[in-house]
Each structure stands twice: as C-alpha cells, then as structure tokens.
Amino acid sequence: MNRAPLKRSRILHMALMGTSDPSGEAEASQGKPFLLRALQIALVVFLYWVTSISMVFLNKYLLDSPSLQLDTPIFVTFYQCLVTTLLCKGLSTLAACCPGAMEFPTLRLDLRVARSVLPLSVVFICMITFNNLCLKYVGVAFYNVGRSLTTVFNVLLSYLLLKQTTSFYALLTCGIIIGGGRGYPVLDGTLFGVLASLCVSLNAIYTKKVLPAVDGSIWRLTFYNNVNACVLFLPLLLLLGELQALLHFAQLGSAHFWGMMTLGGLFGFAIGYVTGLQIKFTSPLTHNVSGTAKACAQTVLAVLYYEETKSFLWWTSNMMVLGGSSAYTWVRGWEMKKVQEEPSPKDEEKSSMGV
After folding, report:
1. 131 partner at 20 to 30 Å CA-CA among 80, 189, 248, 351?
2. CA angle 291, 342, 169 (to 5 degrees)
3. Where does it sit, as one GO cellular component term (predicted)?
4. What phi and psi values does residue 115 have, to the nearest 5 degrees?
C-alpha cells in the first residue's frame, strides 16, 4: 500500500536534487523491448508538452483576453486551486470505494499537518500569483524569458541557504541567461516574472523541507497546499476588490466562461502529474532538456498564433536565455556524471588493500 507514495517521493527527490534513480530506471526498463520503451517515453514527453503549452495559452486567455475582459488574476488562481483540491479529494474517495481500480492516498484534513505545510503554502500562492501576473502583462512568447531567472535563483539560494557552491562553467551559463534577459525593457510583467522565478526556487526548497509532514506523498502535499491556498486567497479577494469586480462581470453566468475556468484547473492539476511522469520515465536531466525545448516551441507557436513581428534583438535575447538554460542543464548533467564515475574514498581504500 505504501509503495506508490514512496515512488512519488523518490521522483520529487530526483527533481529537487538533480540526481538519477538507477533502481527506478532499471525497474521500469526490465523486461521491456526497446521499441516499447521508446514509444512510452515519446508518449509521456508529448503528453507533458501538450499539457504545459495548453495550460499557458489557456491561462493567457483567462487573464488577458479582450473577449472576456476579466481583470481578476487572484480569483482565476484561487479557482484553479479549488479545482485541484476537489479533484484530489474526489480521487481519494474513488480509490477508497474501488480499492482495486486505482491507487490514491487517503486524504483527511488534519489541522496540525495543514499548519506544518503553511510556510510552503505562502510561497506557493506567491509563486502561482506572480506567475499568472507575469502571464497577464506579457505575451506568451516572452513568458519563458520573464520566468528564466529560476536557474539563477536556484544557484543563489543554494549558496545562501544550503552553502552549496557552483562551478565556474555553471556560473558562466547563468551569466548568459542574465545577459539575454537584459535585452528587454523593464516592465511590470518582467518584474512579476523575476518574483515568480524567486518563488519557484523557494518552493523547491520548502517542498523538500515539508515532505516528511505528509509522509513523503506528493498527492497529500498537493491537497494540503491547495487547501491552505484557498483559505489564504479569500482575504486577498476581498482586499483587492476582485469579488466586487466579479459581481459586475458580464459573463459571470456564462457556461463557456466556467467551462474554460474549470479546464484551466484541470490542466493545473494535470501538470504536476505529467511532470512527475516524465521524470519517472526519463530522468531529471532529460526533463530539464525537454522543458527547455518545450519553451522554444512555445515561443515560436505564440509568435505564429498571435501573428506578431519580433525584432532581431528580441530573437537574440530569447536564444541567449534558452541557450543558457540548455547549457546549464548540460553542465550540471556532466558534473553529476563525473561525480558518479569517480571512485569513493572507501572503494579506493579497498582497492589499495587488495580487497
């Protein structure tokens, strides 16, 4: 019964620490022909791309569509958290009613656990709020650049909080990312993107810290995180006047509007699952490479879809940011491989003794 949560915990540990999972990979590949494994990986990567890109375009529509004219970014985020909470509880109930049909942890609201997860929830709501505000004020094509400083903040926070140093080559790739971002004027959307990047880095650190409170289960963490977020968003909705703005919203009774809002919540729930799935079937390094490639495809799709004309400087800045992100991923992968190949002190001691 505890096998699934342990696997999900291992996947999250891989994503945070940037290490591979040889036992998981061996288990996944054992007894499967190469063609079947290749098709599985291709399907999982395709699923991740479709879910991630669809979610970005859908959120852009909800946050900044001229046909909707809905200026309530906090409410959009609150509703997506509410949908995720209800989905988690629904799947937990379904798994309890049909134990043989599916596996999902039992979810019961424990206020003590909710308090333990609260610091992460504060970072979480800042992350998704700044993320949506960035998307509201910038185009989809620029969105990845606005969010590009996550890598830089990961390096900075690793040094400040964990006292982990970074190699010269990795720092050089961070310089390329920062240099690419300087090709854009300072806008509100860029500021929100920088803040979102900072919160993404903090979210990874706090996730690792809080996981033991939920027995290492990503689904339990998702449930408590979104329950806390729903409660914390309520005073923000009142203070910022978004509830009053909703009362005067022309399409409040539209089935199309609520359908799109619910679809956005479904994509928000699905992205966490497909991200873990991609890491499980490939590796954290491949997941990062796939994410960078997806960002390139998303940028090009946005320019074509919105029929935008971009300058040479714009494209150069994009390529610097995405190229720097790819180079950082490659450098970190090369460093991890080098560490794994180096013999440990114990192995060297055994070989010198002739054991």
Report:
1. 248
2. 45
3. membrane
4. -65, -35
